[in-house]
Structure formats: C-alpha cells, structure tokens
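[User] I have long wanted to understand how a fold can be written as tokens. Those tokens are not coordinates but codes from a learned vocabulary of shapes. Could you go through the record with me and say what the backbone is doing? Thank you; the sequence and its tokens follow:
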Amino acid sequence: MARLSRFFIFTLTLCAVAIFTTTIVRAFFYNPDTEITVPPDEVVASNPQHHPVRLIVPSLGIDANVQDVGVNAAGNMGVPSNFTDVGWYKYGVVPGGAGSSVIAGHVDNGLGLSGVFKRLDELETGDEIIVERRDGTRRTFVVTGKRSYPYDAVPTEIIFNPSGSARLNLITCGGSWVKSAKTYDQRLVVFTKLSGT
C-alpha cells in the first residue's frame, strides 16, 4: 500500500512538473502566430537600413529590441515571438517615413507577468518615443493621444495609413480576456507624430 502511495505521489509530481514546464515555455517563448510568407498587396517599399531595431520609451523605462513581423494566418498583424521585444509591421511604413508606422507589443504573458507594453496606457500627450534604425540614426516621436477599440473593430485604415505625415502608432491588448477568442477584448492604440512636424 505504501509503495502504491509513493508511486501515485511520484506520478502526480511528474505530471505537475511537465505541466509547469510547458506553461513556462509557452509563457516566455511560444508564439501562436503562423506568419503568411506572401506579403499583402499594400506593401510599402523601404530602405532596409531605415528599419527599426530598438524602441525606447523613457517615461516607461522601455528599451526593447524590435522584431520585423508580417501578417498571421487570420489576416492580422503578427506579434513578436516573446514578451520583451516589440514587433514592427514590416510591410508598412518605416518609422520616420511618410505615413503611419505601426509597432505592437504584448501586455502580458501566459503567466500574467508584465509584457513590454503593460504600462502603455500610462503614456501622456507630449511624452517622447524614440526609434533607433539599423543605420544607427534615431527618430523621435511625441504622443498626440490614445484610444481603445474593440478587438474586432480596430480602424486599420487609420492605424496603418500609408500616406500623410510621419506618424508612429503603438498598439497592445487591453480590457478583459475573451476565452473563446483567446485574446483580450480591446486594443489600445497610442498615436504619435514625428517630433518637429
């Protein structure tokens, strides 16, 4: 009986370790997006040396690497593969170019720990956002406003606008978790414009 009890405890412990390990791996490294390799029709050509490599938000203490992301199987902008980097929409405008560049980041991970954009809602009008490009140059943007949208009614024509003045839009999740959709019910967008424009 004691041997059976020890075996049961050992098996239960082994299962708990496996579940915990799987959760940790998914929380820190798992990216549920499957990117489509064929870019959409509205690709904006850009100089690779102008692509962003770092995003700095002094007021929030953010200094993050930038990943290039595309479009996922659902037809939405992809997301970074971890919770500390941000993702720049590589088929759109480069930061500092004419039109709206878009950078996204996670609000949290599978364990509920803070993601890179956890405090994005704390940004205020006039706060600076700095983007460092591959060629070492930097572009500074200033926050002009922020707004939340239902996750299934985000005005993509505004956020991904390929023309007009140089803007950078930061986006993350917000609101409440929708289990059936496996996402939050809101998208927070912080709007910025190129400093000096």
User: Anything to note?
Assistant: The longest helix spans residues 2-29. The two ends are 78 Å apart (CA to CA).
